[in-house]
Amino acid sequence: MEYNSERPKMIIPEYGRNVQKMVKHCLTVADRDERNKVAQAIIGVMGQLNPRLRDIDDYKHKLWAHLFIMADFKLDVDSPYEIPTAETFQSKPDRIPYPQGKIRYGHYGRSIPQLIEKCIEYKEGDEKDTLILIIANMMKKSYLTWNRDSVNDEVIAAQLKEMSNGKLELKDLTKLISTKEVLGNRRPTNDFKKSNNHRNHRNNNHRNNNNNRKFKKKY
């Protein structure tokens, strides 16, 4: 009896040992045209064994990459894609730098300061004024996310000027979105909860009344 522990290690276990044997056989085929046919047949079997890969974009490319991996990158066939090498999979991706710098106002995050920096680069004109107003409205919405009571429009204008080092200024405060409008867009959730609570309360009363009638009828 042959135990799995005594068999050669499978490189990609998801395809099973039979596919690994087929790949090993493909390496021994001397005729290139015949070897290409065998490789194409193996790709077909691999696709049938792992239909979930079809949900991945360009899944055929992934199957061919797996074929070369199982062949230890020694398979010489005509691939429709660039033939990978062992170094391709051993190389590490570039390190993504972690954003540095202290956030001046936590409730604005990093996106709004970045928008302010881009807005400063714009030339003076209507387009820049419109972008300033958009940023100011975003600041007000973010502010009200953490302070649900109210916010002074002068505070938003002052913080915008401060964060831009005096380079951006909101000229007309009346164009800012109103606090009532911002908070009003969030009220349907509360109204929905109140409606559900009222409905549940009514159903409970109806159920209790039915139980009382059954009790009186019985006794």
What does this structure look like?
- The protein folds into two domains: 6-90; 106-177, no CATH class.
- The protein contains nine helices and no strands.
- The chain is 58% helix and 0% strand.
- Helix 6 packs across helix 7.
- Mean pLDDT is 82; it is low at 188-193.
- It is elongated and about 80 Å long.
- It is an all-alpha fold and 219 residues long.
Topology at a glance:
Blueprint: H1 16-28, H2 32-49, H3 59-70, H4 86-90, H5 111-120, H6 126-146, H7 153-163, H8 179-184, H9 187-218
Helix pairs in contact: 1-2, 2-3, 5-6, 6-7
Give the H and E element order. Answer: HHHHHHHHH
Strand content: under 5%
By DSSP (H or I, 4+ residues per run), the number of helices equals 9
**Number of distinct beta strands:** 0
How would you briefly describe this protein structure?
The chain has 219 residues and is an all-alpha fold. The protein has 2 domains: 6-90; 106-177, no CATH class.
Spell out the key features of this protein.
219 residues; 2 domains; 58% helix; elongated
